[in-house]
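Q: what sequence does this backbone want?
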């Protein structure tokens, strides 16, 4: 007997779950709000034959299971690309990850000396239990290098002071990186010897990448899922998820692409929708305390100004971080450097200028023409183009690109988690926005893999004996996932393992 699973969102987490469940003959329906693209923030958008990402997506994971799944989906379409990125600061370009000797030379003798002493001071007298981003990074690099290479860009990304950003974000995004590890890597570059758990992802030198961008991975994944019997409904926005305590069934209501209200019943729901939206759309309604916690969660939005220019070979980095506070742009992508097939004409280049904002602020609400003019001026100002180079451009807006790690987010998530695990069986939250966790796509896929194991374990348990202890089945199933030293949280579920944090993903 098939188990019907409703999956909200066709991003990396949702499609990973849908594909893996379909392989096990589970009845799956994936509901995606976007009318055209799968992949979520990992989609690839096309414009006049040019392909570009929403942010950059390097395909490298510490999990062999994830790497194997990428290979299974796209066995013949993954390129190996060199990793290259730099920081633009003070009119100069610095390698990133920082090459300490290069950085110190370019900063000059006085600034370099002060930076070294600042780092030594941080090592001797670190901030105990750092609570915010500034304290965490200053412990790793010293206060002066923090102010030089981290403060401006980070505050552009989040739109708030580094003192208001939780240290959790720094620990998650640049874990393992410090001035000491950067110096060590400069002297003895890290080498991958098969043990992914020892690799500092920030310091990798190459990565895999689909020929036509990350969206290619998820478009093929969606097609393979459908070939196995899974269903994908595009342009469908979920409005409510209702749980019947008597029957134990879920009803998922949504508006389809034509604006008609539809509903499906399911035994399980897997949601990668923003936590705030999901929680406020549950029935029976959550408590007022949990509702306030959900409404307090914040998101940072994001837009990309795509510019097509004459190719003057100005730079070949994958991207450049712009730490200059005199311009609004935060990062510049060079899509040809991700894959030559992203740019169809050899005499042209395609750049993506990324601007971080909040939905409804002045930047977000600017007209496309005004944004293209702004991006053109700033690209010339930082020396990456000349005025006569511009040919065409377009805008892509991405809502809720980043879950905000402010000082209260962890408390709000814990409040939500407690009630969901207690009152709403067979509801599992996965992915970046689903868990309000700044995951990369491989981490999002890991949460989906574990979620699938939980559902399959539940099905097997019920087919053996109705009284079989389900939490033990969950633990046995999740132990089969391959491990490479990643620390991930269990997807939200009503199992007794929910909420624990474990080391996992050992090769089966």
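A:
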């Amino acid at each position: 007997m098939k188990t019907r699973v409703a999956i909200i969102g066709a991003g990396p987490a949702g499609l990973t779950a849908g594909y893996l469940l379909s392989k096990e003959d589970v009845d799956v329906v994936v509901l995606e709000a976007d009318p055209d693209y799968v992949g979520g923030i990992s989609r690839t958008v096309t414009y006049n034959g040019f392909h570009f990402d929403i942010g950059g997506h390097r395909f490298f994971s510490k999990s062999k299971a994830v790497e194997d799944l990428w290979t299974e989906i796209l066995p013949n379409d993954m390129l190996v690309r060199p990793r290259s990125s730099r920081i633009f600061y003070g009119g100069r370009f610095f390698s990133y990850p920082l090459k300490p000797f290069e950085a110190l030379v370019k900063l000059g003798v006085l600034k370099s000396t002060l930076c070294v002493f600042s780092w030594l001071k941080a090592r001797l007298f670190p901030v105990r239990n750092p609570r915010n981003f500034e304290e965490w990074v200053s412990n790793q690099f010293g206060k002066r290098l923090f102010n030089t290479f981290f403060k401006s860009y980070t505050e552009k990304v989040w739109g708030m002071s580094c003192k208001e950003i939780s240290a959790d974000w720094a620990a998650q995004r640049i874990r393992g990186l410090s001035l000491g590890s950067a110096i060590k890597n400069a002297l003895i570059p890290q080498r991958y010897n098969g043990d992914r758990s020892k690799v500092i992802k920030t310091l990798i030198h190459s990565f895999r990448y689909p020929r036509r961008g990350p969206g290619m991975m998820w478009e093929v994944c969606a097609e393979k899922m459908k070939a196995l019997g899974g269903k994908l409904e595009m342009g469908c926005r979920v409005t409510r998820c209702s749980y019947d305590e008597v029957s134990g069934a879920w009803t998922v209501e949504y508006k389809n692409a034509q604006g008609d209200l539809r509903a499906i019943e399911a035994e399980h729901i897997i949601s990668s929708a923003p936590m705030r939206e999901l929680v406020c759309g549950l029935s029976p309604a959550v408590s007022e305390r949990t509702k306030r916690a959900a409404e307090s969660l914040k998101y940072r939005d994001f837009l990309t100004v795509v510019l097509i220019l004459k190719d003057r070979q100005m730079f070949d980095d994958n991207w450049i971080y712009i730490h200059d506070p005199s311009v609004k742009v935060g990062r510049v992508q060079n899509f040809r450097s991700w894959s030559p097939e992203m740019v169809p004409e050899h005499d042209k280049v395609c750049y993506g200028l990324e601007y971080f904002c909040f939905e409804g602020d002045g930047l977000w609400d600017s007209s496309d023409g005004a944004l293209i003019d702004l991006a053109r001026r700033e690209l010339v100002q930082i020396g990456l183009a000349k005025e006569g180079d511009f040919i065409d451009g377009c805008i892509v807006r991405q809502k809720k690109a980043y879950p905000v790690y402010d000082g209260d987010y962890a408390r709000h998530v814990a409040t939500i988690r407690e009630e969901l695990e207690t009152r709403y069986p067979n509801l599992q939250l996965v992915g970046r926005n689903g868990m309000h966790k700044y995951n990369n796509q491989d981490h999002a896929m890991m949460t989906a893999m574990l979620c699938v194991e939980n559902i399959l374990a539940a099905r097997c348990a019920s087919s053996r004996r109705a009284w079989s202890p389900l939490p033990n089945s969950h633990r046995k199933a999740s132990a089969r996932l391959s491990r490479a030293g990643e620390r991930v949280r269990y997807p939200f579920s009503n199992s007794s393992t929910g909420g624990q944090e474990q080391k996992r993903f050992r090769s089966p």
